[in-house]
Structure formats: structure tokens, C-alpha cells
């Protein structure tokens, strides 16, 4: 029975991100520092709907802007058939989310 304890701990550890709300994974635009809130709002909408349709909402701040811009977003945009303009809109939201300070934990 003791051998199950590490397995249970591992499941609990990997389940933690699933306990986060959508707003914790993809911060609302109202919490971000941006010069173009309308564009960021559209980018967040695409991220939390189109992108999430395949694999759920992943925490935006878990990756660097370099990772998003260089490998993740181009690959996912191609799979989701996003236009270059829409890809740039999602990137604008992601950049604002990463570059804005995270709100304090309650």
C-alpha cells in the first residue's frame, strides 16, 4: 500500500494546474497593461476558445514570449488555420499577459 503514496502524490501534483480558473490561466485584459485593450480582448477570446478547443486553456505565463512566438503559436496557428492577422492578435494578448505583473494572490 505504501507504493501507492508516490503515485497519488504525482497525480495530485499534476492535477494542480487543472484546478486553476480560466482567469488564472489566461488573465483578463482588465488586469493587463496594454495600449490596445480591444485587440487584446480579441486575442484572449481566440486563446480561450479556439486554442482551448483542442487542449484546454493552458497557463499563458508558463511559457516565455520567445517560446510562444518562435515555436508554439506558429505551429498552433497553422493547425487552427488562424490568419496571420489573428495570430498576431493572439500574440499581442500573450505578450501583454506575460509582460504585465501578475496580480497578487488572495
Please give a structural write-up.
With 106 residues, the chain is an all-alpha fold. It has one domain. 63% of the residues lie in helices and 0% in strands. The chain is built from five helices and no strands. Helix 3 packs across helix 5 and helix 4 runs antiparallel to helix 5. The radius of gyration is 16 Å and the shape is globular. The termini are far apart.
Give the SSE layout:
Layout: H1 4-15, H2 22-25, H3 37-55, H4 65-80, H5 84-99
Helix pairs in contact: 3-5, 4-5
Descriptors for this entry?
63% helix, mainly alpha, 106 residues, 5 helices, 0% strand
What is the count of distinct domains?
1
Order of helices and strands: HHHHH
Compute the CA-based radius of gyration: 16 Å
> How many DSSP E strands?
0
Mean pLDDT rating: 84
Structural class of the secondary elements? Answer: mainly alpha
> Shape, please?
globular
Q: In what range is the share of β-strand residues? A: under 5%
Largest sheet: none
In the predicted model, the low-confidence regions spanning at least 5 consecutive residues are 7-17
Helix content: 55-70%
Measured between the Cα atoms of the first and last residue, the distance is 37 Å
